[in-house]
Amino acid sequence: MRLIIVLHVLLILSNGLLAVNSPFLTYTISGKNEWKITQDAYVVSEVLFKDLDLYYPDDIFIWENKMYIADSGNARIVVFDMITREATYVGDMSLFQPTGVFVDDDYIYVADPGTSEIVIFDKSGNEVKRIGRPTNPLFGETANFKPKKLVVDKRGNFYIVSEGTFEGIIQLDQNGEFLGYFGANTVGITFLDKFIDIFYTKEQKEKFLNRIPKPYTNITIDSKGLIYTVTQKERGNAIKKHNTIGLNILPASKERRMIDEPNFIDIAVDNNGRMFALTETGLIYEYDSEGNLLVSFGGRAIATERNGLFTVASAITVDADGKVYVLDRERGLVHVFNPTQYIQTLHKALELYSQGKYLESKGLWKELMIYDGYSKIAHYGLGKAYFQEGNYRAAADEFKKAYAKRDYSDAYWEIRNEFLQKNAGIILLGFILFIALLVALDELSKRGLIKKRLKISSKFLNDIIYIKNILRHPLDTFYYIQRRKHGSVLSATIIYVIFFLVIQFDYFGRSFIFNLNVHDRSVGFVLLASAAPTMLWVFANYLVSSINDGRGTLRDIYIFTAYSFAPYILFQPFVILLTYILTYNEAFIVSFVSMILITWSAVLLFTGVKEIHDYGVLDTIKSILLTLVWIFVIILVYSIVYMLWDQLAQTIYAIVQEVLYRARK
């Protein structure tokens, strides 16, 4: 065992030394979606074609130990035999600007936007056929047909990415007949778009709004016939995996939660469904078959040319051995990346995981932890293994590190169930004793042996404790507040402080299952986000009531608003504590009770406006709506003043700098 540990340490140290000399760093994602430097997943083994004079090559494809390159600038397809290391050429007399190449058992298919055609060659390089613009009326007379990239399925159907085509992928049969558009991108509608829809006419929308889907950037196909696409200027779903009818079936992409880039230009898929996406800057993202990021590596060569860094990357592919090939368009080179022991171990673990063999993958996940203790997917896989073997506490710990809330909830449910089974008798006995204690205290109180209420002489403390009275007698509470028999500015201020503390507790104090993903939020941000609207409400409502003959003073509004938060202040802490007991299956309880408390507080606030200002129901609604309008106006004015002041400050600073500069001269 000690020997194994020593060997692992030596392996890690050796990898660390290699990383020092590596031209790029490899990153992975932690459970909190933070980028972490990890072991090298791939290392550059060689750089091809330094003496081949490729000129702006655009695409690369590997088929049966041969590499096919769309050498766009030289108007040809380069066929490189990876065994004999010899190069031949196809189409150097018949192509104009080849930008996409695809190969199967029989043919070489080339997308040539220069001629607006698909050109088909046999394996000997003889031209077999050309497919031009579809003549089918359904295709449309004004539709673009400039094929940039293409793939062909086992039935001989073409899937073509055409320049400027936003309707989707052009699908043709083997004879070039138009079959339809495949899997078009959707148009995202923002809140502002929905707002505009209400007020704009149809003609205005057509004139001012440009709501068309983004065109696809590139395409590939896997061994099962599933189509993969990448789209530039997308976030969260730049990569899509399409089923036979064009729908996106990639889980992470459908939920728009993929960790991706807005400038992907190509994608490749290996035999196990793992995806490799390439950016123009040379970053390579590797994902598992469900869209979870494994590693990111590569980069742009800025000052010097170094193997593994790219000037302008243009295409990527992967072979059966897991080697990754990336085409540098600017330099006309192909960089070959070999997988390291780290990524090979991760791949093996993922293969066992995808087959449901969680226990068999346990050793591999533990080995990966030696390489990288941050990897989100490694913690998740190990958690699955622990869960299957019944070690639920260890599973919960790993799921927590992977930030996998639902799986953590499942493990916690098992832990809770085990605890309840072991301690059911004690819990029941404790509940019975608690009920008996309450009954006994009530009986002693009735006999006068103990005092039911503790008398507090301090008016300040009485005013704070009086908050509970609003739950049963809200009208009396607001009446006494206005008559100054209960409540004060100081007691209301203390209640506000408690209210803001409860919000902080609600925001940061929930259990892992129910937390609000607030690792990127600060206490100050939450305080400002809660205190500012509250104080704006008090001030704006005072302005509105002054205009609309409201009887409440600024002091009254300040105090009754604080007391209106009583349900949330008194009961929300118990809801938060409840999150440490419940699982995802009971999440509706937390949401439902929280909504009741917020609604209850809103009703009390409505009642407070009505009673303090002596309004009717309609006047109360009017007052609240006008208050919200005033809050919006105040925020708008503040924003305008802030921007003007910022510009003024920058102008004054620039003038001062100019004066100082001239004074020095």
Question: Describe it for me?
Answer:
- With 665 residues, this protein is of the alpha+beta class.
- It contains 18 helices and 25 strands.
- The strands form seven sheets. Strands 3-25-24-23 form a four-stranded antiparallel beta sheet. A four-stranded antiparallel beta sheet has the order 4-5-6-7, with no helix packed on it. A four-stranded antiparallel beta sheet has the order 8-9-10-11, with no helix packed on it.
- A hairpin with a 6-residue loop joins strand 13 (158-162) and strand 14.
- Helix 13 (489-508) crosses helix 14 and helix 13 (489-508) runs parallel beside helix 16 (566-578).
- It is elongated.
List keywords for this structure.
665 residues, single chain, 4-stranded antiparallel beta sheet, elongated, 25 strands, alpha+beta, membrane
- What is the radius of gyration? 34 Å
Distance between the termini: 74 Å
Sheet/helix structural class: alpha+beta
Largest sheet: 4 strands, antiparallel
SS elements, strand count: 25
Q: Beta-strand level of the residues, as a percent range?
A: 15-25%
**How are the strands of the biggest sheet laid out side by side?**
3-25-24-23
The parts where pLDDT drops under 50 for at least 5 residues are: 1-20
Oligomeric state of this protein: single chain
Helix content: 40-55%
Keywords: Membrane, TPR repeat, Transmembrane, Transmembrane helix
Transmembrane segments: 424-444, 487-505, 525-545, 557-582, 588-609, 621-645
Domain Yip1: 469-638
Pfam families: Yip1
